[in-house]
Amino acid sequence: MGKACSFLLMVGGLLAGLNGFCEGKDGKAMEVHKRIITIDTHCDTPMALLDRGLDVGEKNEAPGSRVDFPRMEEGGLDAIFFAAFTSQRPRTEENTQNAYEMANKMIEKTKEVCQKYNNMAEVATAPEDVARLKKQGKRAIYIGMENGFPLGQKLDRVEEFYNKGVRYITLCHSSNNDVCDSSTDRKGPEHDGLSTFGKEVVQEMNRLGMLIDVSHISDKSFYDVVEMSKVPVFASHSSVRAIAHHKRNMTDDMIKALAKNGGVIQICLLDDYIKDPDTTTVRYQKEQEIRNIFNTRFAKMSEEEQAEVRKHWRELDEKYPKQLPTVADCVDHIDYVKNLVGVDYVGIGSDFDGGGGLADCADVSQMPNITAEMLKRGYTEEEIAKVWGGNFLRVFAEVVKNRQ
């Protein structure tokens, strides 16, 4: 390589090509990452902290693990939201209490690992924290809560979770709950959007300066939230339905409404949200079998049984490797939003450790590949900075500024 580069240096006409050849796209992308603030707004790593005792202070390997502090540094990722995820179960008092306790365990575990490795990362709660921690060479770990199920019907729990460091709540997950209807509940809508309690939750989150996450919620729930919220809302991990036709993704009209609201859609790196699946493969059939368990029996299982199902889900990648979408496919979604409403309304939420991962972006260490693809397509550094964190931080800051 050294001799080749020396030779090319003598050829003035090839100097531009030499830069790309010797340095490589990843090198250019990393230089951009050093200058800008980069944020991933959704991962499910807290599940792995509890289920498998994942050590985020050590470098792990995908697909078993996609997020840890060393790989965040390697990939130039400054901040990430650790989501305290709870699956939706029948809304009994016991199940709600169990979900409440599980969410608290994930929050405390996140704080515990940040304290253990406080030379590498800290829990962050304010928009400006990421810039401060970046200067110190540390990762900013924000906390979100995926699914409003742990709230039950107790409005005071919103403030309780806020005081524990939670800065967004994904209002529901794969099934309807007491807050709103889900985009994927097999029984269809229950509340015709936000419930009466859900409207109180939106108002309370506005009052506290807490981000409202519209990923997973039904289309009608989304429009209800946008109409009610006095501040911008965001989708922490959703993609474009015009490209991948999953109900979890957002339609053109929804993206336009989100932009008008001042919010942002964070493109999700989960395969079915990036490209429509090939339904003819053995992998797809096995995946559907496990999804069926998630959708029909998972809620009634014990924590040990749920952990076993998650283990089988992780083993799919080893037994039935999947041809995953690429970074180029992902950036197609970013392009689409940019062309539809502008570059000010799109970002990235990987869903790593919760299903997210691309063929050439398997974990946080490979996130510069997304930047390299944007550079290849002619994005300016200013535009890339907006996609990687600027747009989200604008929303975050406005939500905090307008709290009551």
Automatic annotation (TrEMBL):
GO molecular function: metallodipeptidase activity
UniProt-listed GO biological process terms: proteolysis
Classification via Pfam families: Peptidase_M19
Coiled coil: none
TM helices/strands, residue ranges: none
InterPro entries reported for this sequence: Metal_Hydrolase, Pept_M19
Classification via PROSITE patterns: RENAL_DIPEPTIDASE_2 (PS51365)
Record SUPFAM superfamilies: Metallo-dependent hydrolases (SSF51556)
Record-linked Gene3D superfamilies: L27 domain, Metal-dependent hydrolases
Protein name: Membrane dipeptidase
Organism in which the protein naturally occurs: Draconibacterium orientale
